[in-house]
Design a protein that fits this description.
Layout: H1 3-18, H2 28-32, E1 36-47, E2 50-61, E3 65-69, H3 76-83, E4 94-96, E5 99-100, H4 106-113, E6 116-119, H5 131-142, H6 147-160, H7 176-188, E7 194-198, H8 206-223, E8 226-231, H9 234-240, E9 243-248, E10 251-257, H10 258-262, H11 267-280, H12 284-292
Parallel strand pairs: 3-8, 3-9, 6-7, 7-8
Antiparallel strand pairs: 1-2, 1-4, 4-5, 9-10
Helix pairs in contact: 1-6, 1-8, 5-6, 5-7, 6-7
The chain binds adenosine-5'-diphosphate and magnesium ion (MG).
Magnesium ion (MG) binds at residues 76-77, 121.
Length: 294
C-alpha cells in the first residue's frame, strides 16, 4: 500500500468513525439472506474426560455482530478458540469464510489467518515493546511489508481506536481501557473480514466499557466486518448484538435476535437477564472488583 492510499484510507476510516451510527438492526429475513461467514456444525469438545462443549451449532452472517454470552466456565472461550483455529481442528466442524478449518493445508490456513483478527481476554500487549510495535506484530508475522508501510498501518489503526499519538508509549503507561483499545487496534491491523473479541470489557468501569461498545459498533460500520464478541455483560450485548448466543454449561440455550432474548420465556435465559438487574444495584467499585476477580 502506498502512503497516499493509506492516507486516503485513514480519512475514510476517520470520517466513518465520527459519523453517528444510523444502522438499524437487520430483520431476521435480511440477516438470513446474507452469506454465512462462520459455521459451526455439531461441535463437541472435551478436556480429557471432561466435556465442555456439547453439540454446538451456530452461524454468523456477513456484517453481523454475534455476542456469545454465558456464565463463567460455560465454555465461551473454548468455543472462541475453536473458531479461530487455536484448538485442534476437526474436519466438517468449523468453517470460516466458507473454508473448512479442519481440512486446510498450512498455506491455506495462513491465508485465512490473514483475514481474521483476534483479541483475547488475557492476550494483553507485550510489555517489553511499544504500543505501536505490539500493533505491528501481525504484519511482521503474516506479511512482508516494509517498515514504513507497517508504521503507517499501525498508526492508522491507533487513530481508529482513538489512540493516535500513543504508539511510542510502553503498555504500562496506558490505562486499562486504552490497553483494550490497543489490542483491538492490533486485531484489526490486517483489515480482517472477521473480528473475534473475548470479553473486551471485562475489568473496565461501565463508562469505559460503554465507549468500547461504541467503538465495536463503529468498527463494524467503518470496516464492513463481521464480529464475534464473547461477553458476560448483558447490557453490552443488548447494545451491540444483532443476535445473541447463550451458552450454558457447554450447551447452547438460545441463538436469537436481541428482542427475542429480551422476551425469552426460557427460565435459564431469564436467570441470566436477572443476574444483570442484581448487578445493577451493586456499588460500581465492588462490581469492578468482582469483574476483575480480585
Ligand atoms: N486447558 C484446560 N484444561 C482443562 N479444562 C479447561 C481448560 N480450559 C478451560 N477448561 C474448563 O472448560 C470449561 C469452559 O472454560 P472456558 O471456555 O474458559 O469458559 P468461559 O470462557 O465461558 O468462562 C471450564 O469448566 C474450564 O474450567
Ligand atoms: Mg472466558
Amino acid at each position: 500500500m502506498t502512503s497516499a492510499e493509506s492516507q486516503r484510507e485513514a480519512l475514510h476510516h476517520i470520517a466513518a468513525l465520527r459519523a453517528e451510527s444510523t444502522a438499524q438492526r437487520p430483520t431476521e429475513t435480511e440477516l438470513m439472506a446474507r452469506p454465512k461467514v462462520v459455521e459451526v456444525d455439531h461441535l463437541d469438545f472435551s478436556f480429557g474426560s471432561r466435556q465442555v462443549l456439547y453439540d454446538i451449532n451456530l452461524d454468523v452472517r456477513a456484517g453481523e455482530i454475534m455476542v456469545i454470552m454465558g456464565g463463567s466456565g460455560s465454555g465461551k472461550t473454548t468455543l472462541l478458540r475453536h473458531l479461530v483455529g487455536l484448538m485442534p481442528p476437526q474436519p466438517g466442524k468449523v468453517k470460516l469464510l466458507n473454508k473448512d478449518m479442519g481440512s486446510l493445508k498450512p498455506n491455506e490456513l495462513l491465508d485465512l489467518k490473514r483475514k481474521i483478527g483476534v483479541a483475547f481476554q488475557f492476550g494483553a500487549l507485550f510489555s517489553s515493546m511499544t504500543v505501536a510495535e505490539n500493533v505491528k506484530l501481525p504484519l511482521r508475522e503474516l506479511t512482508d511489508l516494509g517498515e514504513k508501510t507497517m508504521d503507517i498501518m499501525a498508526n492508522l489503526k491507533l487513530e481508529v481506536v482513538n489512540l493516535s499519538g500513543f504508539g511510542g508509549l510502553m503498555p504500562a503507561a496506558l490505562s486499562g481501557g486504552m490497553v483494550k483499545r490497543a489490542s483491538i487496534a492490533r486485531a484489526i491491523v490486517m483489515d480482517p473480514k472477521l473480528l473475534f473479541l473475548d470479553e473486551p470489557s471485562s475489568g473496565l468501569d461501565p463508562v469505559v466499557s460503554s465507549a468500547l461498545d461504541d467503538l465495536i459498533l463503529k468498527l463494524r460500520e467503518a470496516m464492513d466486518i463481521s464480529v464475534v464478541v464473547v461477553s458476560h455483560d448483558i447490557d453490552s450485548a443488548f447494545k451491540i448484538a444483532d443476535r445473541i448466543t447463550v451458552l450454558d454449561q457447554g450447551h447452547i440455550l438460545a441463538i436469537e435476535r436481541v428482542e427475542a432474548i429480551r422476551n425469552s420465556t426460557n427460565e435459564r435465559v431469564q436467570n441470566l437477564l436477572n443476574r444483570r438487574s442484581v448487578e445493577a444495584e451493586v456499588d460500581p467499585a465492588e462490581y469492578l472488583r468482582r469483574l476483575t476477580g480480585d
